[in-house]
Amino acid sequence: MDIKPRPIWGRSSTGWRSFALILPIFTIGALFPFGCKTPEKRTSVESDGPNAATQPTYDTTAPKPVAPRDRLERQALNREGGLRSVDRLMDKRTPLPPFDRPTLPPLDPDQKISEGVPLLDDRDPFAEPPPLPPKEVTIHVGIGRSTYKTREREEVLSAIQPFIDLVHREVNIRGEAQLHESADEMFYSLLDGKNQLAACNVFEYLIIRDWLASKEDNGTVLLATATPAHPRTENLDADFVGTLGSSIELIVAADSIYKKPKDLKSARLALAANLVPAPGAFLTRLLADLGHPRSQPFFSSVALRRYPKDCVIDVLKGKADVACVDQGTVGALCRFYGIQGRIRTLAVSPRYNVDALFTSANNLATHREEIELTQRQLTTLGKDPEGQEVLFFFDVEGWSNYRDDDIATPRAHYADYLKFLDETPVDLLPLLDPKALVDRRTYDRFGDE
Amino acid sequence: MKNLSPGYPGILGFVALSPILFTGILGLGGGCALTQKQSADARLFPPHPEFPPEHRFSLDDLVLLSVHRNASLDVARYEAEAAQGLVDQVKALWLPQLRFDFAAIAYDNNLNYEARAFDLATLNVPITGTYNFVNSLAFSQILYTGGKRTSGLKQAKMYAEIKRLDVLRQQDAVAFDVANYYHLVCFTNEVDAILEDAVRRLRVFRQVAENLTQRGSLRSSNVDRLQADYFIAQLEQFRVLVQAGRQQAYEALKHFVGVSRDEPLSLKVASLPPALTATEMISAYNEVVEGFSQRPEAKQLDLFTEIRREQVKFAKVAWNPNVVILGSYLDSQGSNNTILGAIDGLLASLIVDVPIYDAGRLGKLREALGFENASLAFQRQFEELITLQIEVTAIDTQKALATEMKAARARAAAMEHYDATRQAYSRELLPASAVATAIGLDMLAKIQHAQSLYAYHDARARLKRVTADREAQYGY
């Protein structure tokens, strides 16, 4: 073997040797960066725009400038020497992988949170409810005074409006209410086709039925009857048949001397104006049963009061001896004031103070669909909050489709009503007189006049 | 108390530091462990529950589904599985390592070593030839570590168990989240229905008031209509909030169950179930007794403390000698290199490493003792917190049940008040404005009751969470 000193990097023809020459230069450059020009700090990411050199694109993820405090910090921050060479060599070959994850799918609009609970609309989640489109009135409903009783006409028309809108919204039929003061008004409206439906006290229905039956090819069709809300029963009517809570009561003070109806001779009677058919029939029957002649007054005075509640409070206040009112009023007063211990029921009528919905054969021939749909809406009114409010305005629990014998009791006592109309006792004449004087004073909620 | 689990720095800190703790142990074994059959094969994940597409989910269904579908539980399970790999790595220290190396070396310089010692003699030692191929086979077997391996294995197994218990901890947390959002969907849906009902009633009131005024009736006034308008506008704002909350809660529910956005998830019932009766009241301390033994966190912490104790032992046995047997076989082929040729063949060595003096190990022992006592104190603190959390939650549940019963009475009173007011209004005993007030009162009582019912179910779900009660169904 030759013993010859050789230069360490004697040959320059191979790549190995070139690399061996470059490597120390890089190393020295990295370790001793004196004299190197500090490159300008980059304040932005590179831009693709045409003015990228002069228009920096700001990037809030870029670091804020750090002032180096010594040579090593400057060296680290400037990354001079070898790291820049590696940047040039490797950065293009090692790009960050692109973000190519797909966006998650949208919620299926047909999805439901639960039965009847849909998802919110993607674009308009809290849309205003659409207003009802205008619609021509195709059905007119007559409402008798005997149904709305002591309420004002404006009250009834206003309270019925939500029901009309409900029918419009649900079955796309526009109705209109028309008020009637008497049974004959209602009869002619049905006969002439001005009203397609009618609602009134069952006694008025029965009389209209008789009138329409006398017309050729015509007649009434009873569709539904009303059930009173908060029905009250009393010992005296416990065994009665018919619609619960549809009686008329004679109310006296609990400590009064009156034990039987005949004791009421010369007593002061308080009646509610516009509460006519059932009290009329009841008192007519009562006076007839007592054998009192109809031309002679039985009571010392008969006062027509604006509201039924005032009749009962009059009894409590000693302004009347007896009040003839519907059971609903007595029930409401007992519940509101707890007066059940201060009053006594002297007599109770049969359960015939019922309201009825009906139509006539001539209207059924022309408006069958409208009539049936309106009837269905009325009988299902109680399932909607709006319907419940409308029903409770009239203190009605609901309307039910007519079934056999629903009005058997009123029918059985129909003669009393006819007697009231045809042979009106003198005490009850004010009930039928539209010009009769009505005491409109009323008690406030504290029982003060 | 609510955020007790997230604020669990000791365990989480340990989990984060554990790779560092085991570095020393693993250093003994090198980087390459033999593949071993998994020891956890006996435990099988239950089969995925099958639900038909039209299925409507109860809360119990959702909790069951979340166990299979929630992604964070999968993360925890796979991390627990990774911890089992760590156990295998430590176990591999009992097994030999065998490796084969091949090297091909070529130079255009023979790198002969030339020297002239004291100017008396000239040496010319040829180190290698122009090319060489070196094949080597190396074998190593740790024979004895003085208990370091055993201690390391104990620590690794306890760490793996901590990670397994973490799956249960997360499962409890996910089940609570599912129950919470389910109840929130039901609650918001119930409140929405209450508000809708009230708005519809008030609209009737408003319409009647407006119609009366338009007709010139003195029975109502524009003030009534404006009052109704104001109430309706307020309630509609509230409805927007509630409906948005319901949708958000529903989407969060889907997330925690692990159902993708386009998958249907229809709830069986979207209203809150009734609360239990007073006869089913719970004892707060019984809950503590039952819950404490079931909480995975309590067990995790106990294991954490055991690891710290084991680390003290580890620091002590660090003074024990290590005995390793090493063997290698080398074969060199090439241009007749004499030196490489000379070391061809089998080389066997036995290494006995006995530490005589190493002050750093005393420091390590001192550190381990400090951590052991810190962990004991932390355990005491954490157990008190768990007890406190269970007790507070149990009292919350009792409170929620009592509140719910009172809210139910208030609701019944408000309903009767509303009904009586409507009756009184229809008999001219009260003005119409009283009805509007009664509608508002009834609505508020219903909302309050729904809120108390939600608080009750939330507290019950939270109690299940803090007592780690995975047996009872959420349907209660």
Q: What order do the helices and strands come in, and which of them pair?
A:
The complex is a heterodimer of chains A (449) and B (476).
Chain A: H1 15-31, E1 44-45, E2 57-58, H2 71-78, H3 82-90, E3 112-114, E4 117-118, E5 137-144, H4 145-148, H5 153-171, E6 174-180, H6 183-191, E7 197-201, H7 202-213, E8 220-228, E9 248-253, E10 268-272, H8 277-289, E11 301-305, H9 308-317, E12 322-326, H10 327-337, E13 343-348, E14 355-360, H11 361-379, H12 385-393, E15 396-401, H13 408-412, H14 414-422, H15 429-432
Parallel strand pairs in A: 5-6, 5-7, 10-11, 10-12
Antiparallel strand pairs in A: 1-2, 3-4, 7-14, 8-14, 8-15, 9-12, 9-13
Helix pairs in contact in A: 5-11, 5-12, 6-7, 8-14
Chain B: H1 9-29, E1 56-57, H2 59-69, H3 71-91, E2 97-106, E3 113-117, E4 121-125, E5 131-144, H4 148-214, H5 222-257, E6 266-267, H6 284-294, H7 296-317, E7 322-334, H8 338-342, E8 345-353, H9 359-426, H10 432-466
Helix pairs in contact in B: 1-4, 2-4, 3-4, 4-5, 4-7, 4-10, 6-9, 7-9, 9-10
Explain what you see:
The complex is a heterodimer of chains A (449) and B (476). Chain A is an alpha/beta fold and 449 residues long. Chain A contains 15 helices and 15 strands. In chain A, the strands form four sheets. A six-stranded mixed beta sheet of chain A has the order 6-5-7-14-8-15. In chain A, α5 packs across α11 (361-379), α5 (153-171) runs antiparallel to α12 (385-393) and α6 (183-191) packs across α7. The longest helix of chain A is centred in the middle third of the chain and has 19 residues, at 153-171. The model of chain A is unreliable at 1-49 (pLDDT under 50). With 476 residues, chain B is of the alpha+beta class. In chain B, 62% of the residues lie in helices and 13% in strands. Chain B has ten helices and eight strands. In chain B, the strands form three sheets. A four-stranded antiparallel beta sheet of chain B has the order 2-5-7-8. In chain B, α4 runs antiparallel to α5 and α4 (148-214) runs antiparallel to α7. The model of chain B is unreliable at 1-40 (pLDDT under 50). At the A-B interface, β3, α5, α10 and α12 of A face α4, α5, β6 and α9 of B.
